[in-house]
Amino acid sequence: MSMDAALAMLIAQLDLERLEDNLFRGQSADIGGKSVFGGQVIGQALVAAGRTVDTTRVPHSLHAYFLLPGDMAAPIVYEVDRIRDGRSFTARRVQAIQHGRPILSMIASFQTSEPGFAHQFPMPQVPSPEELQPFAQLREGWLATAEAQALPERMREAMRRPSPIEFRPVEPRNPLRPAPGEPRQAIWFRTIDRVPDDPMLHRCLLAYASDHNLMPTALVPHGKSWFSPGMMVASLDHALWFHRDGRVDDWLLYSMDSPSAQGARGLARGLIHDRQGRLVASVAQEGLMRDIGSPQS
Fold this sequence. Notes:
Layout: H1 5-14, E1 17-20, E2 23-26, H2 38-50, E3 57-66, E4 76-85, E5 89-98, E6 101-112, H3 135-142, H4 146-149, H5 153-160, E7 165-169, E8 184-191, H6 199-209, E9 231-242, E10 252-262, E11 265-274, E12 279-291
């Protein structure tokens, strides 16, 4: 049976072309934004780092800064610096480069598997994904509203574009009619189809998915969304810690909150649990939340 086309395209994007030792090239996809999706660059940068590391070591954390918007029409070159190869840990610095300038800088750390102390926060009690509506169904209702008719055609097309990830929000919020609320949300997600049994691929796909829905959490208390007129929203940095192996083709619960926003920046955090309640990963991100109608100092 053939794989879903959108997911197959994403996996192909993560299979970088090797140009030279420590040098790789990746292609981009237009998923409806104004620039390359940040999760794509993070996922590809993690692939590039992993291609220079012994396969017995898996990534346990990454810390990335978005420096410039990515050009969707141009390839991205990933340059890997082998900054440490220790007995237990390996560290890599990755620069994502377009048009001669870095658009992302990331450090990723890999570790050899070993036993140790273990504890975790419990998974929040929420409805199962089978009890919730898929985002694709919710989207059609939102696109039938008057607000949707006022959107540029390109934005409406972007909302309908097939996604390699299926999302089921616990408490759906119409981004075209944002209302103020608590800075929290929870969303189940999984890939639209099965993924090969490659733990590194699953971690790279999880890195990709972790950039979806996180920053909008910080907009909720202000009654704003990515689609609100006059809003400039962009990810500034992204941190991800992998705690346990998890499959992205089985349901994962992404519970998010935003403890603070200030200075045109918002902070959002997330915990990713699997259906068995195991904490798979933790995420943190700061993003730009600027009302471009407001005077700037």
